[in-house]
Amino acid sequence: MPTFEITTASADDIEMLGEWAHAEGWNPGRTDGHAFFATDPRGFLIGRLDGAPVSSVSVVRYGSGFGFLGFYLTRPELRGQGYGIQVWRAGMDRLAGRNVGLDGVVAQQANYRKSGFRSAWTSMRWVGRPAADIGAPPGITLVDARSLPFDRLAVYDRHFFPAERDSFLAPWIAAPGRTALAALGDDGELRGFAVMRPCRTSSRIGPLHASSPEVAAALMSALSATAPDNEIAVDVPGINPAAVTLAEQLGLAPSFETARMYTGPMPDVDHTGLFGITSLELG
């Protein structure tokens, strides 16, 4: 009889998950694993059949009351045999008692609802080449975000995410090949923050936080100017209509849809300033 066991992932396993996600067409960042593993090293589970990895789930804990689920995958040739649901149950046990979020692809949303998740809003990945000469609006200056004290970025990011995530954000900014920009007002206060990372195809921007569509457009334009072929992708939350309108105005094309779902109430964050989701895998 084949032996199936669930283990905590190694750093090499997390790199493997990036390849699995790529095979699904999700276009993960080439160095996302650096930040993922640092955030919650025990939050990535691998189902192994006779020692070979066949299924996975990430169940990352944030703070004392929030968790995020991603990387729910089974090797295509072994789907429908129960290896996925076993790691799912183990993962949900790890997040017991927390409000759990995920970004679910359309094909899996009905299954997530059966497991107690409820849709909060939809998001769409928009891909293309925005104009590279959209300047910052009056009173706004764009600077390298890594030149700012990290505490300032972490406090600002907290407006748009349900829990503190310093252990994720620090390596997310600093990973190889990334560009991080901050928008500062004349008063020195943060008015926007965005990170672009290299991926297998178009470079992805996330997070994309901004005080206005004009600031978001300036950040996207400046980042796109440094991307290969100037092509970027942004996962735009439908709960912010201004973000959707901006993607359309910049000439980006819709790619694929997901839904943000929670087991508990929708967290109280600033959705009006959320123009791009950081990561479909870790929120």
In short:
This protein has 283 residues and is α+β, with helices and mostly antiparallel strands. It has eight helices and 13 strands.
Strand element count: 13
Q: Which parts are unreliable, with pLDDT below 50 for 5 consecutive residues or more?
A: none
Radius of gyration: 19 Å
Q: Characterize the overall form.
A: globular
Structural class: alpha+beta
SSE pattern, N- to C-terminal: EHHEEEHEHEEHHEEEHEHEE
Average pLDDT rating: 96
* Helix amount: 25-40%
Largest sheet: 13 strands, mixed
Total number of helices = 8
Note down, in words, how this protein is organized:
The protein starts with a strand and ends in a 7-residue tail after the last strand. 46% of the residues are buried. With 283 residues, the protein is an alpha+beta fold. Strands 1, 2, 3, 4, 5, 6, 7, 8, 9, 10, 11, 12 and 13 form a 13-stranded mixed beta sheet that branches. The chain contains eight helices and 13 strands. It has helices at 11-23, 32-39, 83-94, 109-114, 150-157, 166-174, 213-224, 241-249, and strands at 4-8, 44-49, 52-62, 66-74, 99-105, 118-128, 140-144, 179-185, 190-197, 203-210, 232-237, 253-262, 274-276.
